[in-house]
Write a structure and sequence with these properties.
alpha+beta; tt1808, chain A; two-stranded antiparallel ribbon; 1 helix
């Protein structure tokens, strides 16, 4: 996916979306830290944290999903959220 350029006053700056942040920064950092490589470690991507708040009359709000959940020996240790970089 190509980067987009946005002109901002006197200079152009790179706009990096959330998917690029994951691919270029988070995934390599997790691999360098041996997440998903070391025995007993796993990375759960797009992991559902909650089905959504209860609104009543059998309805629920938007479900919450984490970009990454880091698991070690079947214990969920951390949640990582990727954000677009402006």
């Amino acid at each position: 996916m190509p980067r987009c350029w946005r002109h901002s006053g006197t200079h152009a700056e790179t706009v990096v979306n959330e998917a690029e942040t994951r691919a270029e920064h988070i995934d390599p950092a997790l691999k360098a830290a041996c997440w998903g490589v070391a025995e007993g470690s796993r990375i759960l991507r797009e992991y559902s944290i909650t089905p959504g708040r209860i609104e009543g009359q059998g309805r629920r709000g938007q479900p919450l999903t984490a970009d990454y959940v880091l698991v070690y020996r079947n214990h969920k240790l951390a949640v990582v959220e990727a954000k677009a970089r402006d």
